[in-house]
Design a protein that fits this description.
Blueprint lengths: L2 H23 L2 H14 L10
Helix pairs in contact: 1-2
Length: 51
């Protein structure tokens, strides 16, 4: 497997882990920041903003 692809997947997984933590903590400001970074880094994915 391409090591660049592995790095990107790990990075995405890290962002998703942080988003899960922010959600569990109820920190909507942090959630929005993580989602903004995800949508910038992975523009093909549609991310739902927390209300």
């Amino acid at each position: 497997m391409n090591t660049t692809l592995q790095k990107a997947n790990l990075q995405l997984d890290d962002y998703l882990d942080l988003l899960n933590l922010a959600t569990n903590l109820g920190d909507t400001r942090w959630q929005k920041e993580i989602i903004r970074k995800l949508s910038y880094t992975y523009p093909a994915a549609t991310c739902k903003q927390p209300q």
